[in-house]
Amino acid sequence: MKNATITLATDAVHDDEPCFFLTEGERNTDIPGGGVRRVQIITVIRDDAKWKCVVDLGPAEDFEAEPFGLQGYVEVAPGRFEVLETVGRLRLAAREMRSAKPHERPYDPQDLRAGLEETASRRLDARLGRRRFAI
Asked: Contact 86/21 with Cβ under 8 angstroms?
């Protein structure tokens, strides 16, 4: 299998970990009578490997929001990614999206590529000792 990606499983993630992707959706349970559950799937990066954590949020009928996914990375080259977000920040954004009415977004989507370029520029300025200011 060429270019296969292995994702490892974990039971817990921390708010300060780099978050590659966060998605919320519905999943059937294997438990008889368990019904459909709302789950949050968080993919983090640990030691250059993807780890996935599945969090059960409760019965699906308790949630009005549609399933969604939040990307925490940008592609910097083919097959190379830089993770810009943390688990805590994407969990906060997910909570806001979950509390919004269906078909309503609480904020405009951000341009992640422009944010990555701005971050790289700020790092270079800091390394070279240049100060940034606005007029």
From this structure: no
